[in-house]
Amino acid sequence: MCIRDSMQNELRNIFDPIVQTCTVDVNRVIEGQVKLGEVLNQILKDMELIKQNNFADKDKELADYIEKVNLCKRRLANVYMKIEKIQGRVEKIEKRFVKVQAQYKV
Length: 106
Known about the structure:
mainly alpha, 3 helices
């Protein structure tokens, strides 16, 4: 076995579990985003109904709930920014790996 094959096997041993874990986690996030999208669409419909009927002005509990929904929206925006940062890091790792791989091609 040559050094290149040995290095390639070692890199696979390192990256395969990481890639598998990442794939599972990404699939969970995608499934969660789909479910969240459905819930948010329903909330949007409900909020439009509330807005049209001015229920929030009459009901303190409902107004508090709407404030919680707005807080959730801000939290989701923060999660989205973190996901974008993670994607940027993955892209940097990928670019570096491609460079390393190109250096060791025969």
